[in-house]
Design brief:
heterodimer; A: 84 residues; alpha+beta; 37% strand; globular; B: 588 residues; mainly alpha; 3 domains; 3-stranded mixed β-sheet; 3-stranded antiparallel β-sheet; 26 helices; 8 strands
């Protein structure tokens, strides 16, 4: 079985490395429905996200900018992008 | 507040202060004959500099981080030690915001050991472990830290601590200066928390017949979801619940051979978890559950799954609409706008201003001396001002829209405007509107063509501004002008057209398009406009990036073939325009 070993997230210049299995499960529950690319062509500002999911067989990438899929805010909270 | 902080956190003050220089630059660009019009338009507008709570939170974090770095660099200078990651770690530990939690810093633990003779032994031992790298930085041969502290002359270390204290005080001074912003974010956080609870309760009540009174009471008392409610409704309005794993979308993922294995596994695992939580634990293998009649009986109906998903989306939308119109930044600006007594109540400043974090101009009018005058709202989003090298150009882009705005007509039905080559009609009344979470990206007929022309003009005006040494929010070394907008991808359609017909283009931007049609031909103009729609329909969103990559690598495929057909059509239209101009010139 291709189990997820870790997930890497880059949001603009911030980088997150997630290997905790509970966090991974919660992240996957949100992003398994996401389109691989989510991009607003109107303007190019707005943060860019890149997610790389690594299993022992393959990697999957999601990218987006200016347009965020459902659950994006909660996803950021799970990965720890919730700075005060 | 110092200028640098003001620029980052109160951009409205900075922008207001730059307006005379901006106005002067517009006059230099458009000519003295347009001075009165430019000044009048820039006097009769409201500049709104929006920062979303998330944007401000990021800004404050980066501000504290950058300032910490500066302070540490200065600290190392004062103690004559190399400013390296390793040395930072030994004195200050690993945190990104080093001075935010001083109690955990090795240097603080050092002074605590010195001052607190009654420290419990377990704590002292732990602290000694933590400060060893710090001590060894200055006394490399010391191994017994406890004895060293008890018996040695600590003058040098204590002096270093005093310098650190001064550094910490400087950091705390920054925190005092930004306290109003931190308090504001705390207020936003509380509003959001209360609203989340309110709308989650509404969700629970909407589906209460599926849950026990005990579960519902539990939620009302504790404020969080668990048990069957959690399985059905999920942790938050935003996130999928466990029952989503039984939805048609999830089944499609399972059935699609192109789906990733981890996507399928995640869904299957959620199904197993659902059955177990509902009291049917048949082990870890999904086959055990698949054909089991008891399991089949408790799978929620598709209608219910869809109803819950739709209800959550609607409540999430209502929640964010209420949130963004409850925060004080919105309320204060709303009061300012309302005090202007603008005639059109649908003024474009609403929850969507924060949800989409957009930058735009909304036309409006007010009465002055028994006449209607233009009074637009200019909303500029400043969330990324610290990292946006195009910020100055973005502002000028919007101000050029303001300059190009013309009021054509006002009547009971509303007002008619032109802005560049576009015509608008705004109605006077306002209905209460809920804004969807995601912006509609449908384009108006001339919007794309109009925007790239506005963008080209804005780039030239910004270059003029910068050439005078005036930089508003951009660092002179990093300021960028061309790019930073999706419109840039259509520059290739208009560059030559713009250069060839520039004076007529500029003359036509105030609702008088005949000035342009007379030289290039209206039909030719509309054909060029059509190419924008062809381009956008073919290459929306990420497909543009793939196209540009193929072009760069000189790949010959369907994509590039169509692109070159568009280029050929563009060139044909331009040739027709030049022929039209020649013929019309000859006729005169």
């Amino acid at each position: 079985m291709s189990e997820i070993i870790y997930i890497e997230v880059a949001i603009d210049n911030k980088y997150y490395y997630i290997h905790d299995s509970d966090k991974i499960n919660n992240i996957i529950r949100i992003i398994r429905y996401w389109p691989p690319k989510s991009f607003s062509s109107h303007i190019l500002d707005g943060e860019e996200y890149r997610i790389k999911i690594t299993t022992n067989n393959e990697t999957t990438e999601y990218t987006g900018r200016g347009k965020y899929p459902k659950g994006y805010n909660f996803f950021k909270k799970i990965i720890g992008d919730n700075r005060e | 507040m110092n200028k640098s902080l003001e620029r980052k956190l109160s951009p409205d003050i900075m922008l207001r202060d730059f307006m005379p220089q901006i106005t002067e630059t517009f006059i230099e660009y458009y000519g003295e004959e347009n001075k009165e019009d430019i000044e009048k338009k820039f006097q009769n507008m409201l500049l709104i500099c929006t920062q979303t709570p998330n944007g401000l939170k990021n800004k404050l974090f980066n501000l504290k981080k950058d300032y910490s770095k500066e302070l540490i660099s200065s600290f190392f200078d004062k103690i004559n030690l190399e400013f390296s990651e390793d040395n930072i770690k030994k004195i200050f530990g690993n945190s990104e915001l080093i001075f935010e939690y001083p109690n955990i810093l090795p240097i603080e633990k050092y002074i605590k050991i010195i001052n607190d003779k009654d420290m419990p032994i377990y704590l002292k031992n732990s602290f000694i472990r933590d400060i060893k790298p710090f001590i060894n930085l200055f006394y490399p041969s010391v191994t017994d830290i406890d004895t060293f502290i008890e018996t040695s002359d600590l003058t040098q270390l204590n002096k270093i601590y005093d310098i650190y204290q001064d550094t910490l005080n400087e950091y705390n001074n920054l925190k005092k200066e930004i306290k109003p912003y931190i308090d504001y974010l705390d207020e936003c956080k509380k509003i959001k928390k209360d609203l989340k609870r309110k709308y989650t309760l509404e969700l629970v009540e909407q589906f209460q017949k599926y849950f026990s009174d005990e579960d519902i009471q539990n939620f009302k008392e504790k404020g969080y979801l668990n048990g069957k409610i959690l399985l059905y409704l999920g942790y938050t309005l935003e996130t999928p619940s466990m029952i989503e794993a039984f939805s048609k979308e999830s089944q499609k993922i399972i059935d699609d051979p192109k789906s990733k294995f981890w996507q399928i596994t995640s869904i299957i695992n959620d199904r197993i978890k659902f059955f177990k939580e509902m009291g049917l634990d048949l082990g870890e293998k999904y086959q055990n559950y698949q054909d089991n009649p008891k399991c089949q009986n408790i799978i929620p109906a598709q209608d219910l799954i869809k109803n819950i998903r739709d209800a959550k989306e609607e409540l999430e939308m209502r929640m964010y609409n209420e949130y963004f119109t409850s925060i004080s930044e919105y309320r204060n600006t709303r009061n300012k706008i309302d005090s202007l007594n603008l005639c059109l109540k649908d003024d474009g400043y609403n929850a969507s201003t924060f949800m989409y974090a957009g930058t735009y101009v909304t036309p409006n009018i007010k009465m002055e001396n028994d006449n209607f005058i233009l009074f637009p709202l200019v909303n500029i989003n400043f969330d990324n001002v610290n990292v946006d090298d195009f910020m100055d150009k973005r502002i000028i882009h919007e101000l050029n829209h303001v300059y190009e705005l013309e009021l054509i007509n006002v009547n009971k039905a509303g007002a008619d405007y032109t802005c560049g080559w576009e015509k608008f009609h705004e109605i006077g009344t306002q209905e209460d509107e809920l804004y969807p979470l995601y912006e509609d990206n449908t384009k108006r007929k001339y919007e794309l063509f109009n925007e790239i022309i506005n963008e080209l003009i804005a780039q030239e005006i910004t270059e003029k501004l910068h050439s005078k040494g005036i930089y508003m929010f951009c660092d002179p070394n990093n300021a960028k002008i061309q790019g930073g907008t999706g419109y840039e991808s259509t520059r290739f359609l208009v560059q030559t057209f713009y250069e060839t017909f520039k004076s007529e283009i500029l003359a036509s931007r105030h609702g008088n398009m005949n000035q342009l049609f007379e030289v290039c031909g209206e039909e030719n103009f509309n054909q060029l406009n059509e190419l924008f729609h062809v381009f956008k329909d073919k290459w929306s969103e990420f497909k543009i990036i793939t196209l540009f990559k193929d072009l760069k690598n000189q790949v010959n495929n369907e994509n590039t073939k169509i692109f070159y057909q568009i280029i050929d059509k563009r060139d044909e239209i331009l040739a027709n325009m030049l022929e039209f101009k020649k013929q019309n010139t000859n006729r005169r």
